[in-house]
Design brief:
about 30% strand; 23 strands; globular; 7-stranded antiparallel beta sheet
Length: about 425
């Protein structure tokens, strides 16, 4: 018992020291409200913080009396003694230890600020490559209700093959309700080793449907494209489902192929795109915009960091971008920059409105913390958090366009409107 008390005292006293000292190595992440289903959203751009500890704590935004760590230690020991003495069921000390850390982070009341144990962090960091072992679906989490909904299924994934549909609400994983869990935690439960199976229960029209799904290694085609014709004009269509490591190269290849086919204008579809990697987003913007700031961030100390176009390439044909309420984070970075530079006309409905930045702080024991650290702004200095981006042309999607959770091209009035916009811009 004494050893356990010393153990918990060491944990509690060391929490703040560990967090501050670990801040010397941070991965900046533009995290949408979703950390994308079986395809997480995390930014790989590395930023080294060379501040002293005093500089890191330059702005104190805490309220109330300073934390009395001796009292915290005393109370924690008291709680542990009570659990150890009276709790009926088996006690897992590892879970108790995780619970101490998670409790501190959860007390902030910020769904984007999360503590990851070693296994959760491993899942988190390996998920943005575009290659993963999972069931082949993209999901998003409603910021208000916490509901986790399937946004897209991939043909080669077991989810699609077994009948899972966009619009299904994830209800249980391995028979346990996932209500109240942050999306990345649910994703960590669904993902796993290749060839293993996971039971996922969804709600569809109020009914529970259980799937026994095989985890497979998949490389996601985050970009699909084709040539559309409107008023005798050849207009390229590129749909981007998320911004993963593979997306920039896939996007550039799509542009080349469409240009070889005689593309005269372009529609970029970012509907239901929950976001992704910042460096990938900026690389794609750099291909579209010749010079200028693409996005910038400002932290609690007022420190500003600019991301700028670096190459001399630009896209000189008319562009329309399709967006909706599920276009979030990196999608809004892309759309916001293109709109500010008048390089594209936005068509659809208001975007989600995620204008804050998370950083991943890894610790020496293999755990990590994702913490909200700054706001991001479009080139014109607009922070869209909580408001989103209003399209230049507002167009609601016809109800007939969605059949069994899938978009019917013949009924896709939003795409038709975007094509009309591009054709009109050609005539100027």
């Amino acid at each position: 018992m004494k050893e356990n008390k010393k153990f918990f005292l060491g944990i509690l006293v060391g929490i703040t020291i560990f967090i501050v000292l670990s801040a010397a190595f941070i991965k900046l992440a533009f995290e949408s409200r979703t950390v994308r289903g079986v395809l997480f959203e995390v930014v790989k751009k590395i930023s080294t913080i060379d501040s002293t500890m005093d500089e890191v704590n330059k702005t104190d935004t805490t309220t109330g009396a300073a934390i009395d760590w001796e009292e915290v230690s005393r109370k924690s020991n008291q709680l542990y003694d009570t659990i150890n003495s009276y709790y009926l069921n088996e006690i897992d000390n590892n879970k108790l230890q995780d619970g101490i850390y998670k409790g501190m982070v959860d007390s902030l009341g910020d769904r984007y600020t999360v503590y990851y144990n070693a296994e959760e962090y491993k899942q988190f960091t390996t998920a943005s490559s575009g290659t993963y072992c999972g069931i082949g679906v993209t999901v998003s989490q409603n910021i208000s209700t916490g509901a986790i909904t399937v946004v897209k299924t991939f043909k080669k994934g077991s989810g699609a093959k077994e009948g899972m549909l966009p619009g299904d609400i994830i209800y249980k994983v391995e028979g346990k309700k996932i209500e109240g869990l942050e999306l990345s935690k649910v994703v960590a439960q669904i993902k796993g080793e290749e060839g293993t199976f996971v039971k996922v229960t969804v709600l569809r029209n109020g009914k529970e449907i259980e799937f026994n799904l095989e985890r497979k290694k998949l490389e996601v085609d985050t970009v699909t494209y084709r040539m559309e014709e409107k008023a005798g004009k050849k207009i390229g269509y590129i749909a981007v489902s998320e911004f993963d490591e593979v997306t920039a190269s896939q996007f550039k290849s799509a542009l080349k192929d469409l240009e070889k086919e005689g593309m005269e204008g372009l529609v970029i579809d970012l509907r239901d795109n929950p976001g992704g990697l910042l460096d990938v987003t900026c690389e794609m913007l750099d291909r579209m915009i010749k010079k200028g700031i693409l996005v910038y961030t400002v932290d609690k100390n007022g420190k500003r960091v600019d991301e700028e176009a670096t190459d001399n390439l630009s896209f000189d044909k008319p562009v329309a971008i399709l967006v909706n309420g599920n276009s979030a984070s990196a999608s809004e970075v892309f759309s916001g920059a293109m709109k500010d530079y008048k390089a594209a006309t936005l068509v659809g409905t208001n975007t989600f409105g995620k204008g804050i930045v998370q950083s991943i702080v890894p610790f020496e024991d293999g755990t990590a913390m994702k913490v909200t650290v700054s706001k991001y702004y479009t080139p014109n200095g607009v922070n869209i958090h909580g408001t989103g981006i209003k399209p230049d042309v507002v167009e609601e999607l016809n109800k007939e366009a969605l059949k069994d959770g899938k978009l019917d091209r013949k009924e896709d009035n939003q795409l038709d409107k975007a094509l009309d916009v591009v054709v009109k811009k050609m005539g100027k």
